[in-house]
């Protein structure tokens, strides 16, 4: 049976040679590949017109070229996360196009916030802290600078996603619709893979309360901050630690604050509410 199979292979090879116009092929020498130093055979073939052609392809290098044309599992996952971040981020119209340069600080704490954001972007991935927590009252520019940081890093090739917590929770709820292709698990997998997540306005989301606290929301928020504990993240919030406990409960609220602040630099900002005007 083995002889029959071998004969079939030989017949197939001969048929292929005829179809491609090759009458004869043989090895006439070898060479050293100039790229990988492998020993590569030099093959000589004769076409149906009697012309002689010499060819010498390094199979190792050709295989590597083919491999590089296809993304690895890691790169494929990163590209998938990049696509997810662009498709599902939610940027309010008032923030689109904002840059760090267009933000004019008025107080020392606002200057500190702007300088910190600039350093964070310039030295992304090299700072002593992984994340930033921008905390303070409404309208002082926390979301403006957080968005600007993400936009600049995206220009530099990083995957970034800006999403207010309320919109994130709404995205989770869409997975409960059987017609969507998203799953809650896949959302969290993508959230963990993104280079920089901007999680905007933590605590400002609204959900019906259960047992006195917004337990469903706190569960999802905690999952995000837990996944991102050692990963670059910018959090913005109007809340103080005590406010988190009041909203989510002492246990869940405490856990959320703890995860947010782990490996993060916290910036307390004060200033006037400029939401009603331009800045």
UniProtKB/TrEMBL annotation:
<dbReference type="InterPro" id="IPR003593">
    <property type="entry name" value="AAA+_ATPase"/>
</dbReference>
<protein>
    <submittedName>
        <fullName>AAA family ATPase</fullName>
    </submittedName>
</protein>
<dbReference type="Pfam" id="PF01695">
    <property type="entry name" value="IstB_IS21"/>
</dbReference>
<feature type="domain" description="AAA+ ATPase">
    <location>
        <begin position="128"/>
        <end position="273"/>
    </location>
</feature>
<dbReference type="InterPro" id="IPR002611">
    <property type="entry name" value="IstB_ATP-bd"/>
</dbReference>
<dbReference type="InterPro" id="IPR027417">
    <property type="entry name" value="P-loop_NTPase"/>
</dbReference>
<dbReference type="GO" id="GO:0005524">
    <property type="term" value="F:ATP binding"/>
</dbReference>
<dbReference type="GO" id="GO:0006260">
    <property type="term" value="P:DNA replication"/>
</dbReference>
């Amino acid at each position: 049976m083995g002889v029959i199979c071998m004969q079939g292979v030989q017949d197939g090879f001969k048929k292929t040679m005829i179809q491609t116009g090759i009458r004869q092929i043989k090895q006439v020498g070898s060479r050293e590949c100039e790229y990988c130093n492998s020993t590569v055979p030099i093959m000589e073939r004769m076409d149906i017109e009697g012309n002689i052609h010499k060819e010498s392809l390094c199979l190792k290098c050709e295989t590597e070229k083919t491999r590089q044309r296809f993304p690895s599992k890691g790169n494929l996952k990163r590209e998938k996360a990049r696509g997810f971040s662009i498709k599902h981020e939610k940027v309010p119209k008032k923030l689109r196009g904002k840059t760090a340069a267009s933000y004019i600080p008025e107080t020392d704490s606002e200057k500190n916030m702007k300088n910190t954001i600039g350093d964070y972007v310039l030295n992304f991935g090299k700072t002593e802290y992984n994340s930033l927590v921008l905390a303070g009252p409404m309208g002082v520019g926390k979301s403006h600078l957080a968005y600007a940081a993400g936009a600049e890093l995206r220009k530099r090739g990083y995957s970034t996603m800006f999403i207010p917590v309320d919109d994130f929770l709404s995205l989770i709820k869409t997975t409960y619709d059987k017609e969507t292709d998203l799953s809650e698990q896949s959302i969290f997998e993508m959230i963990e893979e993104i280079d920089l997540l901007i999680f905007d306005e933590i605590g400002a989301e609204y959900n019906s309360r259960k047992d006195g606290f917004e337990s469903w929301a706190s569960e999802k928020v905690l999952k995000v901050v837990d996944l991102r504990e050692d990963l670059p993240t910018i959090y913005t919030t109007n809340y103080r630690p005590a406010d988190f406990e009041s909203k989510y409960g002492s246990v869940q609220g405490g856990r959320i604050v703890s995860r947010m602040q782990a490996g993060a630099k916290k910036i307390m900002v004060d200033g006037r509410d400029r939401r009603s005007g331009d800045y």
